[in-house]
Design a protein that fits this description.
single chain; about 375 residues; 5-stranded mixed sheet
Amino acid sequence: MARTAIGCEAVVGSLTPSKKREYRFTNRLQEGKRPLYAVVFNFMDYRYFNVFATVGGNRVTVYQCLEGGVITVLQSYVDEDKDESFYTVTWACNIDGSPFLVAGGINGIIRVIDASAERVHRSFVGHGDSINEIRSQPLKASLVVSASKDESIRLWNVHSGICILIFAGAGGHRNEVLSVDFHPSDIYRVASCGMDNTVKIWSMKEFWTYVEKSFTWSDIPSKFPTKYVQFPIFIASVHSNYVDCNRWLGDFILSKSVDNEIVLWEPKMKEQCPGEGTADILQKYPVPECDIWFIKFSCDFHYNSAAIGNREGKIYVWELQTSPPVLTAKLSHPQSKSPIRQTAMSFDGSTILSCCEDGTIWRWDAVATET
């Protein structure tokens, strides 16, 4: 891994001076020549909050952020299939608390990597096409959910290797599912979005006994009675084009299409009419030159801020707890010109990472300001 130092300062801007947070460019890594599609900090274990993972090609790499902008490589996993191209990675935990990395991509196979043992723990086969995103359940870190080009979402138990639920069917997505996210406090709810321009909210409540059964199942995983969830409890058409990233913000939803903005909205469900309701748009966060799909934003642990890159290599940092919206920082660098596929904000938002189409990783760190 080559690490290069570039002697240029960040370009930082703000719409409201009182909310301005300055970030300084501190490091750039050239991981390889293949595009990097995902970068994610480990929020599952406080011991590893400064550890992050990237995926690109058939490689999963684990790094650690150290003081002074230093990034060190901890481990790297190269998939046995040279044609694999990972698009997504998430951190999860085994039931004993050991850290797992869960990655998927073009081949539709999910690799569960035991980071402490540095080996593949399990491989999940089930999706019929490529996997666009995998997310972990913050309240039960052994559960992950995957979104696929095969128009389905699947709930997995990384400990037992069981596919518990498949969200697809009569009320499911009608094109690639591009993003999925667990509700932060309602353990039963999942939101998904995709190329059918919709965001769908699903409930696992009536199937929760199967989730619990997945932790005690003693037979082979393929014999587990996997259930289909065919109907979402809410469908929203907030966007008129592909929706490639959605995240819960409490009971609200942040979603992004290719329309140069992130939208914050509230799902207003009709309890008596599942699937129906209205979406009240609360505010919008503009992101110039963000009109290509598969660009995903990230938030710090407490969802105070969101960071998103664009196709020109710039990063916009938005304050999420203010109304009207406040742009806290705009990060740019003369040599950062490649599309940013995903960002990662550290636990407290003091470090922002981005992974790019040209195989680079960029690090920005907050500058201490006088109070």
